[in-house]
Amino acid sequence: MQSNMLTVAHPGAACYKPRRLFGKDFKVLKSLYTRTLELSNHRHALWVLVIVAFVESSIFPIPPDILLIPMIIAAPSRAWKIALLCTVASVMGGLAGYGIGMFLFQELGQPLLELYGYSPKFLEFQKAYNEWGAWAVFIAGVTPFPYKVITILSGVTALDLVVFIVASLMARGFRFFLIAALIWKFGLSIREFIEAHLGIVFTIFCTALVGGFLAIKYFL
């Protein structure tokens, strides 16, 4: 039905250009990035966002942010609905990633990680993962670290499913609703800050948060 569709007609969205792509010569990823971005102008853009947010959590290399940003610029009055759908779809996709890790790691999970060059990151987190599983899920859900690595790893290590879901909801909700709030408040002018610096801000925030809890745990 028409009420469930989002048509992007705002001139700011039409001229939206990503400040940075992937650097170097990742031509296939750049092409995929551009093609995905173009879908923000599709009349079924809301459904496209849901699909991208879902698959990005397990198998797709392009984050939903590249659709989320121009869509909210185009329809700021629907910012919270767009962020909510993106959050729910991303967490549902995370559950799919969890299932891949638990049941299909050799057949699907490992080849995916190798295809996107995430194997080193996977091994880096695997050692003491269950002890810090909730933090790992939260950090990956908020920062630029690939969330799909953590969703698959959570399934491989059988991280408690409730912990995984709660941490994912908190992290993805925090990320997408903050982006929505910034665009709703400041509009197109905040775009470059989000693209260039928000990932760093998220990383610093998570580092400080984890550091504070570790300090309380070991020194108090």
Describe this structure in words.
Helix content is 71%, strand content 0%. Helix 3 runs parallel beside helix 5, helix 5 crosses helix 9 and helix 8 packs parallel to helix 10. The chain has 220 residues and is mainly alpha-helical. The radius of gyration is 17 Å and the shape is globular.
Helix content: over 70%
- Could you give a short account of the major beta sheet? none
Number of helices: 11
* Integer-rounded radius of gyration: 17 Å
Strand content: under 5%
The shape is globular
Show the helix and strand layout.
Elements (H helix, E strand, L loop, with lengths): L10 H4 L12 H12 L6 H12 L8 H10 L4 H25 L1 H11 L3 H8 L6 H10 L4 H10 L4 H26 L4 H29 L1
